[in-house]
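Hi there, hope your week has been kind to you so far. Do you reckon you could talk me through the fold, stretch by stretch? Thanks so much in advance, here it is.
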Amino acid sequence: MTEKTPSLTYAGAGVDVAGADRFVRRIASLARETHTPGVVPHRAEYAALFRPDWKGLSDPLIAATCDGVGTKLAIARETGWYDGLGQDLVAMNVNDLLPVGARPLFFLDYIAAGRLDPDAMTRVVQGMALACSDSGCALLGGETAEMPGVYAPGVFDLAGFAVGIVDASRVPKPDTVCAGDVVLGLPSSGVHSNGLSLARAAMRQAGLRYGDAVPGTGRMLGRELLEPTRLYVRPVLEFMERYPVRTAAHVTGGGIHARAKRLANAGHCVVLDPVAWKVPPVFDLIADAGSVSADEMARTFNMGLGYLLVVAKDVAREVLRDPGEWLEAGRIVEGEGFTMGSVHG
């Protein structure tokens, strides 16, 4: 008698469709709480609808970004601390809209895992929702995919997508940068979401653990590395409403070196003053643990500055007249590229 071939199911193959549906229903309310007036209510089974407000825009442009959080995911998985990842994902995208002057309209996410962990993923989405609300944009939708065989058990990946709007007349013009202009900066909240592979390698080399203390902070190393990427939407857009900006940079991949260098146009050099801002202690720990050179640190990490912009000297003078978060990080001089050095003779 021939043995009967087993009847396979999708769930038996490792994909729990019913569980994914329950998760989507669980997080639906989190997304609804972020909805702005532009969101058009309807049965969003496939695509969401959004009606932009074009009022006050003579030549509206759409801006779009896509990014993830890199190997910060590995630290979250190894520690079990997932709460900041949602803000990281939103911040890495909405912050990237700002250098072109764009105001974020909505955000979408993509979550892929070998097997969905509803509790951990709910914490991630909660972070996304809070970050979207803080940035004035709607968490419009997303995709959750279970892919056994592609991702190992306990492993997941995140990607985000943000869309914004800006009037063409408000887009910064890098060609207007000239010698004597001032580089203003906003502090970072720490490592953000770049350079974590180097940080983890330095940890392994020095035998450090996530529970070890970071000198000068009173915090565990794992918590310092997982500190969420700062959201710059409010302070930067408020600045751009008041003052003309020649060019700007969100300090991400390539570190402070690459991002600052791109602020200058041909024939000009960006000089950042290393004593103008405080470098968070976690960067000193990484450098010491991995014997990482100062140049390599600057090419990998933000080193304490998460956002930079260039303005005319008179604008900088007005901004810096009153105490605030904006600091004078450097100057534009004749030359080429980027360097560290005092900008005050």
